[in-house]
Amino acid sequence: MDNRKYRQGSFGEPVRSPLKPWEIVKIVGELGGYGVNFHDNDLLPIDASDSEKEAILKDFRKALADYDVQVPMATTNLFGDPIFKDGAFTSNDARVRAYALQKTMNAMDLGAGLGAKTYVFWGGREGTEVDASKDPRDGIKYFRDAIDFLCEYSTEQGYGMKFALEAKPNEPRGDIYFPTTGNYLGFIETLAHPEMVGVNPEVAHETMAGLNFFHAVGQAIEAGKLFHIDLNDQRPGRYDQDFRFGSESFKICFFLVQLLENSGYDGPRHFDAHAYRTEDLDGVKAFAAGCMRTYLILKEKAERWNKDAEIQGLLKEIKVSDPELESLCKGYSSDKARALKARNFDRKGIASKGLQYERLDQLTCEIIYGVR
Ligand code: MN
Ligand code: CA
Fold first, then answer.
1. Cα–chain center distance at 91
2. Same domain (yes/no): 143, 262
3. What is the structure's pLDDT at 233?
């Protein structure tokens, strides 16, 4: 539910008139969507009066009830207002850092009041163009102080929120701190309450930097830290395109859906994407429906892949097991180290075997292409 135009990628004036928050809820509900979420100022403009806020909230709550739409997640806009021109939690100015905390607590109150259980942090301005301006260690320390403070706030208020940190390499800053999901996974372990904090990876953000998003999500799941996900699509090396889910990188999106479904991930399948600038309201609806439909198509294809006898046969051949060696390599002891060092390996024989990945990948492609 992002009505604000803040991305560098979108040159030009708005091409559609903004929708009111309740109208967005209606559209999502009529399309069969589960939920909506918002930055605080998507819902309540930063300069709205108390009575304006009340009126917007009243309409919004009514639409949530009328169309049976949930608010699973909320977040703070800490990048739009000029006060955040040099960062929010990581600003050099103590007054800006304090205002960012105040704004986030207010936004958490708003989100909690609407049922949000996940709170996302995307630090759009938390970075630099001029590295002379800040030691990155200070930026990281400031960010840690803020997250530690807000964890305590959530606990004290009884909100029971889980925090999800969203990485992005750059845009709108020249460079943003914590450029990848992996950076955040390292950082989380240094927090006062690491159990409350996980990640919210976004397809576009890792892909911009030419990284494999499927791998990033795999690491997050393996660490028990995938608390939320932003699904969209992107070509590598471009601005943050936020395209309709599955519109560009078919294979990565296929494996991503398969991973989410096979892993038992139980968080929202959340789309953080934008319709093309060419579209009118009907196009926006087609875009939203397309995100959901493509997810379900890929889910069905993943099941087909899981059940494909030829694919499963190839996978079985690829995985060479050797119980004796596996036990030698797991759980160190000096005996095991000695035995391993004394072992002779048929290096050339092992390397000479072809792995049939061409066949495996072609079969995978044929499933995605819809001919298998
Ligand atoms: Mn994006
Ligand atoms: Ca996002």
1. 24
2. yes
3. 98
Instruction: Give the distance (Å) from ligand 1 centre to CA of residue 3.
Output: 14
Name residues whose C-beta falls within 8 Å of residue 220's C-beta, 6 or more positions apart in sequence. 181, 185, 198, 199, 201, 226
Query: Which ligand neighbours the alpha carbon of 167 most closely?
Result: 2
Helices (H), the chain: 21-30, 40-43, 50-66, 94-113, 136-157, 181-188, 203-208, 213-222, 250-263, 281-307, 309-318, 323-329, 334-342, 347-351, 357-369
Task: Mark whether 274 is an active-site residue.
Answer: no
| Tally of domains in the chain | 2
Q: Quick check: 68 and 29 in contact, CB under 8 A?
A: yes
Q: 321 and 303 in one domain?
A: no
* Residue 208 CA, ligand 2 centroid: distance in Å: 13
Ligand 2 centre to CA of 122 (Å) is 7
Span 318-348, pLDDT tens digits: 999 999 999 999 999 999 999 999 999 999 9
Ligand nearest to the CA of 206: 1
Query: Each residue of 251-286: pLDDT tens digit?
Result: 999 999 999 999 999 999 999 999 999 999 999 999
User: Which entry of 40, 42, 242, 272 is annotated as an active-site residue?
Assistant: 42
- Domain end marker among 268, 291, 307: 307
The model's confidence at residue 11, banded by pLDDT at 50, 70 and 90, is confident
Protein residues near ligand 2, an ion, with CB under 5 A:
202, 230, 272
Of 286, 307, 328, which residue constitutes the final position of a domain? 307
CA of 346 to the centre of ligand 1 (A): 48
What is the whole-number distance in angstroms between the Cα of residue 310 and the centre of ligand 2? 38
Same domain, 301 and 339: no
Each residue of 34-55: pLDDT tens digit? Answer: 999 999 999 999 999 999 999 9
Name the token pair of 46: 């930063």
Claim to verify: residue 265 and residue 332 sit in the same structural domain: no
Q: Would residue 39 show up in a list of annotated catalytic residues for this protein?
A: yes
Confidence class of residue 6 from pLDDT cuts 50, 70 and 90? very low
